[in-house]
């Protein structure tokens, strides 16, 4: 199946600009993963998606990007192949939770209280 068809579906549907930009990129990366493991898109199931996510995690990819990757894979299989992948809901929920925790942690790390000098008159 063509990535151009995926891009057209994304542009015509309910997908944000960021999703239209990054979903094809993530799916191309996933497709390369499938080639490396001699798999076809019809072979994809939850375990293969998790294997891919573990690989990109090992490469240092943060949870919010892994979430975007799994959402891309899910969208491609649902919208283009018309073959939804069963049981990805738990994976997506877990990545949302982890991404939220990482985001909150980044806010804490980058928090800089106002200097006491700013309050002196």
Write the layout of secondary structure elements.
Blueprint: H1 3-12, H2 17-36, H3 46-58, H4 63-80, H5 89-109, H6 116-119
Helix pairs in contact: 1-2, 2-4, 3-4, 4-5
Annotation keywords:
single chain
Q: How would you portray this structure in words?
A:
The protein has 121 residues and is an all-alpha fold. The protein contains six helices and no strands. It has helices at 3-12, 17-36, 46-58, 63-80, 89-109, 116-119. Helix 1 packs antiparallel against helix 2 (17-36). It is globular and about 35 Å long. The model is unreliable at 113-121 (pLDDT under 50).
Helix content: over 70%
What do the pLDDT scores average to? 87
Distance between the termini: 67 Å
**Structure class:** mainly alpha
- Cα Rg: 18 Å
Biggest beta-sheet profile: none
Shape: globular
Number of strands: 0
Could you name the ranges where pLDDT drops below 50 across 5 or more consecutive residues?
Answer: 113-121
The string of secondary-structure elements, in order, is HHHHHH
**Beta-sheet strand percentage?**
under 5%
Number of helices: 6
Quick overview of this protein structure:
The chain is an all-alpha fold and 121 residues long.
């Amino acid at each position: 199946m063509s990535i151009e068809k995926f891009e057209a579906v994304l542009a015509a549907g309910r997908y944000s600009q960021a999703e239209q930009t990054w979903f094809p990129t993530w799916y191309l990366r996933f497709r390369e993963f499938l080639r490396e493991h001699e798999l076809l898109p019809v072979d994809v199931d939850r375990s293969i998606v998790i294997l891919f996510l573990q690989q990109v995690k090992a490469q240092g990819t943060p949870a919010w990007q892994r979430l975007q990757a799994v959402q891309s894979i899910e969208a491609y299989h649902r919208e283009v192949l018309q073959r939804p992948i069963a049981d990805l809901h738990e994976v997506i929920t877990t990545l949302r939770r982890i991404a939220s925790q990482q985001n909150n942690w980044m806010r804490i790390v980058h928090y800089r209280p106002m200097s006491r000098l700013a309050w002196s008159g």
